[in-house]
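A brief tutorial aside. Many learners find it easier to grasp structure tokens once they have seen a single protein encoded end to end. The record that follows does exactly this for Ribonuclease inhibitor-like. Read the sequence first, then the structure, and try to relate runs of similar tokens to stretches of the chain.
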Amino acid sequence: MINIRDSGVKRLCAVLEDPRCKLEKLWLRDCGITDEGCSALASALRSNPSHLIKLNLSENKIRDSGVKRLCAGLEDPHCKLETLWLRDCGVTDEGCSALTSALKSNSSHLRELSLSLNKIRDLGVKSLCAGLEDPHCKLEILGLMKCDVTDEGCSALDSALRSNPSHLRELDLTGNTLRQSEVKLLSDLKDDPRYKLERLLY
């Protein structure tokens, strides 16, 4: 753990907003960052010269308020972010709702989203599914390991992935309480060449 905290993130973001900065990957796992740091990152993601395509904020307690601030950056046309890791960040269904709005945004470039080890539960999954069903959503990889998802959330995912616009190729549901019957629906979908899903973990 390196405690750069929000003050350190703000200094980094001043560099990210510089036209000369070409940084594409930023790993800030377990750095003591909160929603205040997320505000600075959102501003950097909205900056005209932003080249950042991968951001890892896992194991920071940014919670839903931080996710909402990040989403303001994700929805901006200048944001090029393709990979966002938010593992074990205290995210709930409220944060998922904000992410859904970002996934449905016309300008979203997001291809990989990890929400593993958050208590998003079925309500959060249902919210995300509204994004997966949207034609603007380009998400290809979704991590939901140990998120307290049950059959209800699994059923919503199955419905979303069967929708025409879905691009999802990889889905991780490891460590959730799912019945074999619900998992089989997704497994059948994976084995059907009409759909995009290639890898299913449960």
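Self-check: The domain at 5-201 is CATH 3.80.10.10 (Leucine-rich repeat, LRR (right-handed beta-alpha superhelix)). If you spotted this yourself, you are ready for the next section.
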